[in-house]
Amino acid sequence: MRRLSLTSLVLVLFLAIAALNAAASKTQPAAAQKIPAGITRVTAVEGITEYRLDNGLRFLLFPDRSKGTITVNITYLAGSRHEGYGETGMAHLIEHMIFKGSTKHPNIPQELTARGARPNGTTWFDRTNYFETVTAGDDNLAWALDLESDRMVHSFMKKSDLDSEMTVVRNEFEMGENDPRAVLTDRLLSAAYLWHNYGKSTIGSRSDLENVPIETLAAFYRKWYQPDNAVLVIAGQFDEAKALSLVAEKFGSIPRPARTIEKTYTVEPAQDGERALELRRVGDTQVAGALWHIPSGSHADAAPLEILAYLLGDEPSGHLFKALVDTKKAASVSASAWQLAEPGIFTVSADVRVGQSLDDARSVLIRVAEEAGSNPPEATELDRARQSIAKEWDLLFRNPEWASIQLSEWTAMGDWRLFFLHRDRVRNVTAADVQRVAKTYLRAENRTVGTFIPTKEPMRADIPRPPDIASLFKDWHAGAEIRQGEDLPADPAAIEARITRIKLPSGLKIILLPKKTRGEMFIANLGLRFGDEKSLRARGAAGDLAGDLLMRGTKTKTRQQIQDAIDKLTARVFVGGYPSGAYGSVEAPAANAEAALRLLAEILKEPSFPAEELDKLREEVLLQAEESKTDPMQMASTAWSRHLNPWPAEDPRHVDTPEEKIAAVQAVTLDQIRKFHTDFYGAESGELTIIGEFDPAKIKKLVGELFGNWKNRTPWKWLQNPYQVRPAATLKIEAPDKESAMAQAGMRIEMKEDDADYPAMVLGNFMTGGGFLNSRLAVRLRQKDGLSYGAGSFFYASPFEKDGTWGFYAIYAPQNADKLETGFREEIARLLESGFTPDEIKEAKAGWLDSRKVSRAQERELARTLGQREYAGRTLAWDAELEKKVLALTADQILASMKRHLDPKAISFIQAGDFAGAKKKKESGELPETRTGK
After folding, report:
1. Are 553 and 613 a contacting pair, CB within 8 Å?
2. What is the dotted CATH code of the domain comprising 492-707?
3. Residue 76 DSSP label
4. Could you tell me which CATH number the domain at 8-251 has?
């Protein structure tokens, strides 16, 4: 987890606008109705309205009829910046504790799972937020608001919960310690900031996590978790008048606290010389990084700084990319401007393969970044940057779920309306603005890197203080509200009633679902399959690289021109492939749908496979493969997959080791890649699903033109993976100097999707390791024992053959390996002995069903689901029938099914981590005993 009084004139104008909107709505806008006592309307921007309760709580209503979901997001203006001495990581630790329960909601994970919610909480420097997305309905909205209001002031702060959750957070800390980039960033921050808390990682220090008193934690919670320090957002499909009443009911009775929130007053002094550091750790990737201090996210300079980050770090047009990746001095680069409530940082970094010169890469990295202050950007690249950034903002705001969560960041910077003000500022950035901020802030004396270089005279870059937020909106005007979509129930029958299916002469199956969407959007999802066991033999590397190169050039467009075309269409277009298939997706405004589909087809059918792009890609793939050799997650996953699916090296189903991947990628030639595309790509076997706003007749004609005659030279045949009994294996793989470990366990199951036991296994697995922190395994390993940051199970059965797999995964500290395995095996034995309780099954059925409804309410997920069903020769009637069978299951049926298919003695258990190092630290007393809950 990381991250409102109106004058009579204004009221008349607002009512007039509301009347126009009401013509397209079944419910009267809340603003046109009587606002409940205790609520004041503050302002409205582009479809979002802000209100305030008398107790100080600010809340935003963001209605959208086009999705059958509601997202409730509450942001507390308390993050790691507000922590005191010895309290690092406290804001994040409280984020975890808030899920431990409250007076009216003692088992929050259980409730979230029962509602089929998509929840999370995140912590950053300036804020902490919590959100849950649920199916639309008054009951779910009332429940979510009741949950957030209760845990605002009545969350449990128990010593026993702290003891168990501390080890979970420490496990999350250890995960971050495995990532060289994350560790380097933390060290750079600590060197760049002498006094300000932005120099301390949000996750905190290990010693503070392990020793913070519960009384201190509870005092922090009581101070900051109050209505006058929170901003609530309700987004999605809801009745605005009911929402106002519910907010007043649930939050209005919470009294305004007597205490006052004092502003933080530490100001980081101007840096007076370059600071440098060197970090040495076990790993397989070199990283060079640098950062400079910059103003706050609310400052006007934040906009040109964001443009500057794009100009430096974009692929493939960025200055750093051209200077480092094109010249093979680095495998990848990045640049970012951190937008925070107080002065933040501008960062650049480069990943460099072992054997290449890190000094050269670091020198070029700094030189190219700081040269931006000497030369203004060209008009074409500035336009490209503005277009690409504007596209992401436009697409983000067309999804209220995502936008409501993004508002947390801008709320923490001072006002949620900064979300829109910054967008407009970016649109107006000039080349002179970009050059000015680069020259002002990207200076040697303001730089922190990996070496110390003294200067003769003190030289400083003074960082402006955050501006007066209220004054920023004096002459600023909001844009127009985006048109909402329609309410299409996430019910299989309702969806199927809209669908038209056709088949092209090539064999490609088309699924059309016309639907009014928010912002008049068009969504397409394409899946293609080709080849068979014989024809794909020993061609895996060529197939992988061919798929990865598709977006890097066509016969008429370079990689940059493809990206520019996508940005110009305000679209997301992606195409990729693998040895036995290819895939593509489009998300664009309806007016640009035809152009976006034509671009997708061009990328798929007419790739140019540029030699220089292959060289860059090869470096990226080799870097990833080398990293995976010491990454516990990759090590455990690869070993587990190879054990359960043992195929010969040249077989297309073979799972490569990192060493095999490296050898294959180094050996493959450009001619082999081009020949792979010629031999296999075509549209004889596949599905194209289209959802959104389009003319069915025109779309049929268009897809017929693009794919109707695109044939495969080599026909597709299903790559079978017949069930086989695999011996149980117990294996510990050493990953030296890695703080976090990974476990993966499971077994093959002889089952097909239409088998009688399939529904019972689906629900049984959901209760065993699914849901949100409420499964048997999550409750035992995380909630009770505090051993794992993430633990759960998964289940799969093929729609074509008796080929199934049940598996388990967990992330944990290596010193807890034996305890984790013991806890896992005990829980599996217990559930196979006694099964599940009636209440457990009742809640699981409701949660599982609601989670499927939430998925079908997302157009992109629905498109993938419809394509998968078409591939298996099914419609959503199959989903309806499966749900019916699951809801009819009894406890005896579920237990009997799991006993038939899960054999504890047949489960392979594979772990990867620094077990030897953990043992040594424990023996020396350096590593404390893990504390567990009762």
Report:
1. yes
2. 3.30.830.10
3. E
4. 3.30.830.10
